[in-house]
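Run log // design_07
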């Protein structure tokens, strides 16, 4: 597992045309700890998704660094960058599922590049589906699922490899209160296993909050700690 993720002067700018750009992340310096859930809140459009994508290696920062275990992963390219991504489980805001595959096949996808046997991939994926309460839908086409069931499938895919890093972007958007609590408890269990778990959400109810989270608010490009 990991000791954490460190951001050093992390900046992301989006070009706006006419030589101008919009600063989305402005010199963020923070260390995300393993062993606890980190919650990032902020208004819609504040850049929470951009921050998670940058941390997960899905996009590169304009400047600054993302450092993991003394390795500057934000500079990695090619196979090295793929190696970093394989250490991460990602719950996307938009599910990015393949609708012509079954639920089980979607969950198995992250395991295939790891060279594991088909039976191992299948058993691990079935266990992940059991954790999110979708084992009975293993053979269903993803296209037949409700929004909440797709959200749970995405969660199962994110945790299937017991990753050291989990990045969850609005993971409760399509879930009721009971299911949100169950998914947060699942993320909390992974954090307790010394994983880095970062959850970005527009708003969370008191019933959904995990025990002793680290809390930050992202607004106007700046990430500030929230003092309880």
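design_07 sequence
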């Amino acid at each position: 597992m990991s000791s954490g993720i460190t951001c050093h002067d992390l900046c992301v700018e989006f070009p706006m045309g006419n030589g101008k750009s919009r600063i989305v992340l402005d010199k963020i310096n923070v260390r995300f700890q393993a062993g606890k859930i980190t919650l990032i809140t902020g208004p819609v459009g504040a850049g929470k998704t951009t921050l998670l994508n940058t941390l997960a290696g899905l996009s590169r920062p304009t400047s600054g660094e993302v450092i993991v275990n003394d390795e500057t992963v934000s500079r990695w390219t090619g196979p090295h960058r793929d190696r970093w991504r394989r250490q991460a489980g990602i719950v996307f805001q938009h599910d990015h599922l393949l609708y012509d595959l079954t639920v089980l096949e979607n969950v198995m996808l992250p395991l295939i590049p790891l060279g594991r046997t088909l039976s191992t991939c299948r058993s691990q994926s079935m266990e992940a589906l059991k954790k999110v309460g979708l084992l009975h839908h293993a053979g269903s086409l993803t296209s037949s699922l409700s929004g909440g069931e797709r959200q749970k499938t995405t969660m199962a895919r994110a945790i299937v490899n017991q990753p050291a890093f989990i990045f969850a972007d609005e993971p409760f958007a399509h879930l009721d209160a009971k299911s949100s609590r169950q998914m947060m408890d699942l993320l909390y269990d992974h954090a307790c296993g010394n994983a880095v778990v970062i959850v970005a959400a527009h708003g969370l109810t008191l019933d959904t909050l995990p025990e002793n989270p680290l809390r930050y608010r992202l607004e106007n490009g700046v990430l500030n700690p929230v003092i309880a």
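The chain has six helices and ten strands.
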